[in-house]
């Protein structure tokens, strides 16, 4: 299964270290491949360094492509994480 | 015995044995391997990453309880970077394609990553490239350790003196664990990472030894005098004896202060005093909070502008201020740019001519109002960052009401701009002024009506009032914070604050001078801001002071007409019993 998500970052600090860590940990739980891209770079969602390279700040639009048998569950949890502002108080 | 000289930072004296440490930036060995060795080399890499990860995890467990959330987040990120599947994949590819050893393959990959990170627009993420080097460096250390039979930091003994080329930001975490005695580095200045780390660990360090460490070997007996910036190598018994006694004395005083760290700053007669910290770098925040500061009374923004070609733009400043404000709920007073006089920018502004008398020239708010392209980005950044925490904005060196009019016009423009651009900001950010020009102190009542708070900057106030240049050896004996003129000016400002019902604080060096604390308390000052290193000492003095008892003596002091009588009164104030009341806890 292949799913595509369009997500806009709403939390204030964007994909800063703590948020990136949560995202990478979540992605690593799934078998599916997860690719996150902004307008200029593509990142493996399970790779901390590549997610950091996105340097995605508040307002950035990301495309996330999830491919594999647990793609449905993975996409649901990933969009929940973005929506919950990475469970950080702001 | 011989001595080495550098810039002394941190605290006190350390006596111990030298431990030389290889750090990042030093050569990673490169050698070729045979085609059929590639699999074994990749296996060695995998194992190295695994062991380095286990070590970091064990260390993480070790310090989990005693460290802050901020440190957890850093370690957590480092663990993820170390286990990054792309790191292994890419390095393995380099081993296979270029037939090189694992350490070198990691270095090649690390250099690629560095290049990418250097080109990231976001300064916060860009700064993470140092951490990536450190994480990869740990794996390399592990791999090299397997070959040489030991790892570089393993087996460091408590009290050992770390001798190394330079320290990196994340070393902060590592060295705290080992309770080392001191740091000696070739590189670095008074505001380097080593200096900040040493201050936060309350140990001495000598930086900027300029290759001096090449004369040292592991096991040498060293005396490190952080105050004077001197290292004694293999000291003779007489020198060692003197230093041992001095070190013991410092240690006793330190223990005493340690015991009141978490106690409140309340005077013997029950009055609460706020003790804030002055900081220059965002990194110093956690250290200030650890010193139980009740907030940041002065964040100097000049360091953002110095030692660089281009001034930081609005976005960069926004990110720095946001991160700072975001990390604590306590109030943070950020002072707008105070460049000029003793703080000249070295890069960029070629047309900023040096005035003959810079202290009286176009500096601080005068410079900012003259050049709004300098001032407005900073104010916009501050306003935008205000939503992330408890911000107060402080205008330095204000001396004239017309200047304040102009500042208010600029502030209003910014509010309108941001509203139009739909960018969020707090509408009620307190805006205060720094009282450091005698004219402002004398008219403090007028400023107090127009501003939300005032903060007395004593360094300049004393220099301007007494007409003394503090760095001029020929006159600096006249520099006296307790000069009657200074005390009267301070009283004017404090009284103006009381009448207008706004807070008055003091952020100059006088606020951290224990000889002045009681007099300032008696004058009515209840908010002090100082280097976090002296907070405990000042708190000890506050807790040993009966303010009521001193108030009358200070009234006599302000009207004393005899210098001997004046000095006598000050001595009497400072000599009064300072035994803490045991009932205050």
Describe the overall structure.
The complex is a heterodimer of chains A (90) and B (585). Chain A has helices at residues 17-28, 48-54, 71-83; strands spanning 2-8, 33-37, 42-44, 61-67. Chain A is α+β, with helices and mostly antiparallel strands. Chain A has one domain: 2-Layer Sandwich (Histidine-containing Protein, Chain: A). In chain A, strands 1-4-2-3 form a 4-stranded antiparallel beta sheet. In chain A, a hairpin with a 4-residue loop joins strand 2 (33-37) and strand 3 (42-44). In chain A, helix 1 packs antiparallel against helix 3. Chain B is an alpha/beta fold and 585 residues long. Chain B folds into 3 domains: 24-148, PtsI, HPr-binding domain (Enzyme I, Chain A, domain 2, Orthogonal Bundle); 161-256, 3-Layer(bba) Sandwich (Glucose Oxidase, domain 1), CATH 3.50.30.10; 269-575, TIM Barrel, CATH 3.20.20.60. Chain B has helices spanning 38-63, 69-82, 85-98, 102-118, 123-126, 129-148, 171-178, 193-201, 237-258, 284-290, 314-326, 364-370, 372-385, 401-420, 438-442, 444-450, 458-466, 484-500, 514-523, 535-543, 547-558, 563-575, and strands at 2-5, 7-10, 13-20, 161-164, 182-185, 204-207, 221-225, 230-233, 274-279, 296-300, 332-335, 391-395, 431-435, 453-456, 504-506, 527-531. In chain B, strand 4, helix 7 and strand 5 (182-185) form a beta-alpha-beta unit. Chain B is globular and about 90 Å long. Mean pLDDT of chain B is 86; it is low at 146-151, 346-351 and 581-585. The chains are: A alpha+beta (90), B alpha/beta (585).
């Amino acid at each position: 299964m292949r799913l595509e998500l369009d997500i806009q970052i709403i939390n204030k600090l964007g994909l800063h270290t703590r948020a990136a860590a949560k995202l990478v940990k979540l992605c690593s739980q799934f078998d599916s491949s997860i690719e996150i891209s902004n307008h200029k770079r593509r990142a493996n969602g399970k790779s901390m360094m590549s997610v950091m390279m996105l340097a995605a700040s508040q307002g950035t639009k990301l495309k996330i492509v999830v491919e594999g048998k647990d793609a449905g569950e993975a996409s649901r949890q990933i969009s929940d994480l973005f929506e919950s502002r990475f469970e950080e108080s702001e | 015995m011989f001595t080495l000289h550098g810039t002394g930072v941190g605290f006190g004296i350390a006596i111990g044995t030298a431990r030389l440490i290889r750090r990042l930036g030093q050569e990673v060995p490169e050698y070729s391997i045979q085609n059929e060795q590639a699999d074994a080399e990749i296996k060695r890499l995998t194992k190295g990453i695994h062991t380095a990860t286990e070590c970091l995890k064990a260390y993480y467990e070790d310090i989990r309880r005693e460290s802050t959330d901020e440190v957890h987040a850093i370690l957590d990120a480092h663990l993820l970077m170390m286990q990054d599947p792309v790191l292994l994949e890419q390095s393995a590819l380099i081993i296979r394609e270029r037939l090189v050893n694992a350490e070198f393959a990691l270095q090649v990959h690390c250099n690629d990553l560095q290049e990418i990170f250097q080109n990231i627009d976001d300064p916060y993420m860009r700064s993470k490239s140092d951490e990536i080097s450190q994480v990869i460096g740990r794996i390399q250390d592990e791999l090299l350790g397997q070959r040489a039979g030991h790892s570089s930091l393993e087996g460091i003994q408590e009290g050992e003196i770390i001798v190394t080329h330079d320290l990196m930001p994340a070393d902060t975490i590592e060295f705290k664990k080992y309770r080392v005695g001191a740091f000696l580095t070739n590189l670095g200045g008074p505001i380097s990472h080593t200096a900040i780390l040493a201050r936060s660990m309350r140990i001495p360090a000598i930086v900027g030894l300029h290759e001096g460490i090449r004369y040292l070997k592991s096991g040498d007996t060293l005396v490190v005098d952080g105050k004077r910036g001197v290292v004694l190598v293999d000291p003779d018994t007489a020198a060692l004896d003197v230093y041992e006694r001095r070190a013991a004395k410092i240690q006793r005083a330190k223990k005493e202060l340690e015991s009141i760290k978490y106690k409140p700053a309340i005077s013997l007669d029950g009055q609460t005093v706020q003790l804030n910290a002055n900081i220059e770098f965002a990194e110093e925040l956690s250290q200030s909070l650890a010193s139980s500061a009740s907030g940041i009374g002065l964040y100097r923004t000049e360091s953002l502008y110095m030692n660089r070609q281009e001034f930081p733009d609005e976005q960069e400043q926004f990110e720095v201020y946001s991160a700072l404000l975001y990390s604590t709920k306590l109030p943070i007073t950020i002072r707008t740019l105070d460049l000029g006089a003793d703080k000249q920018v070295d890069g960029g502004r070629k047309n900023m001519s040096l005035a003959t008398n810079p202290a009286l020239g176009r500096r601080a708010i005068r410079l900012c109002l003259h050049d709004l392209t300098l001032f407005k980005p900073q104010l916009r950044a501050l306003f935008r960052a205000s939503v992330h925490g408890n911000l107060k904005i402080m205008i330095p060196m204000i001396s004239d009401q017309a200047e304040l009019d102009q500042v208010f016009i600029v502030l209003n423009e910014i509010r309108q701009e941001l509203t139009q651009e739909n960018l969020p900001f707090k509408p009620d950010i307190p805006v205060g002024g720094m009282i450091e020009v005698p004219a402002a102190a004398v008219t403090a009542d007028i400023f107090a009506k127009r501003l939300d708070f005032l903060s007395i900057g004593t360094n300049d106030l004393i220099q301007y009032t007494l007409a003394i240049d503090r760095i001029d050896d020929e006159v600096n004996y006249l520099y006296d914070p307790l000069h009657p003129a200074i005390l009267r000016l301070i009283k004017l400002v404090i009284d103006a604050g009381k009448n207008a019902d706004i807070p008055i604080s003091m952020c100059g060096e006088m606020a951290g001078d224990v000889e002045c604390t009681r007099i300032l308390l008696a004058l009515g000052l209840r908010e002090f801001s100082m280097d976090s290193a002296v907070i405990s000492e000042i708190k000890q003095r506050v807790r040993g002071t009966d303010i009521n008892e001193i108030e009358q003596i200070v009234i006599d002091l302000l009207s004393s007409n005899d210098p001997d009588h004046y000095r006598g009164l000050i001595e009497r104030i400072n000599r009064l019993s300072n035994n803490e009341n045991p009932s205050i806890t």
